[in-house]
Automatic annotation (TrEMBL):
InterPro entries: PhnD, Phosphnate-bd, Solute-binding_3/MltF_N, TAT_signal. The gene is phnD_4. One of its GO terms (biological process) is organic phosphonate transport. Pfam families: Phosphonate-bd. It comes from Bordetella ansorpii. PROSITE patterns: TAT. One of its GO terms (cellular component) is ATP-binding cassette (ABC) transporter complex. Residues 1-27 form the signal peptide. It comes from the Bacteria. This is Phosphate-import protein phnD. NCBIfam families: 3A0109s03R, PhnD.
Length: 291
């Protein structure tokens, strides 16, 4: 059949409309892969972050797929290999990811509870243990969280060394529990004598009834630690970065992981984490060899 100009115009218009509709549908169903460090167990992390993930999906028009690795380096490796687009990392795991996975911090949570973008590391023991000081922990067992955990390893180790306490020599045994919750429960159940944990996660454990506040004591507290950032791969396309950044600036009044209810996400940058690099330097850590 001979195609007239009128028929051609109708065909072209219909084709362009179909392509535009398909493009819009594709944009609506594009996937955003989000990594979450396992500060709690995987299901707890996903559950505690779900409302933020839902809002992120709604505001970006993208399908959001959360991922929790078995350890901190699992998230870093997934960023490095391009299997994740953005991630929630601890401060030290971010510094490591910026070195080996070309990651860049862009936002940080500010919560209603603290109103700040910092937190602390604590060393804890059972109150009935008699271990009410760092010095008394000499010769006892201890749990760190993960080699790449800021409040669960880097800051407490630096603090102990500054006080003349060498974890590698003065503890009878050291383990890495894998999560802050696991370390808290290890102390509560007498599996280890002491542990290093984030203050906000300990507060959350009290609130959830995992442990009783009257059973746990703090024997050391760190200086301020810059809050855990949201990061993206630097090579993530600019349009997606704009969508994600704009969406996260509008998300508030929702629970966010172990941090509590959000006031919102504030912009941050790589320089905010130089204090972490300086702390790593005092421990003679070669970031390039830690992954």
């Amino acid at each position: 059949m001979k195609m007239t100009r009128k028929t051609w115009m109708k065909f072209t218009s219909a084709t362009l409309l179909a392509l535009a509709t398909a493009g819009a549908a594709s944009a609506q169903t594009a996937e955003l892969r989000v990594g979450l460090i396992p500060s709690e167990d995987a299901q707890a992390m996903i559950h505690a972050s779900q409302q933020v993930m839902d809002q992120l999906a709604q505001k970006t028009g993208m399908k959001v797929r959360p991922f929790v690795a078995t350890d901190y380096n699992g998230v870093i490796e997934a960023l490095r290999s391009g299997k994740l687009d953005i991630a929630y990392l601890g401060p030290f795991s971010y510094v490591l990811a910026s070195q080996v996975a070309d990651a860049e911090a862009f936002a940080v949570a500010v919560t209603k509870k603290t109103g700040t973008s910092s937190y602390h590391s604590l060393l804890i023991t059972r109150k009935d243990s008699g271990l009410d000081s760092v010095a008394k922990l000499k010769g006892h067992t201890f749990a760190f969280v993960d080699p790449s955990s800021t409040s669960g390893h880097l800051f407490p180790k630096a603090g102990l060394l500054k006080d003349g306490f060498d974890p590698e020599k003065h503890f009878s045994r050291v383990i890495f529990s894998g999560s802050h919750d696991a370390s808290i429960m290890a102390v509560a159940n007498g599996k280890v004598d002491g542990a290093a944990v984030a203050d906000r996660i300990l507060d959350s454990a009290f609130a959830k009834g995992l442990v009783k506040k009257e059973d746990i004591q703090m024997v050391w507290r760190s200086p301020d630690i810059p809050e855990s950032p949201m990061v993206w791969r630097k090579k993530l396309d600019a349009a997606t970065k704009r969508k994600v950044s704009a969406a996260m600036s509008e998300i508030k009044d929702l629970p966010w992981g172990d941090q509590g209810v959000l006031n919102g996400f504030a912009p941050t940058n790589d320089q905010a984490y130089d204090v972490i690099r300086q702390t790593a330097k005092t421990l003679n850590l070669d970031l390039g060899k830690m992954k």
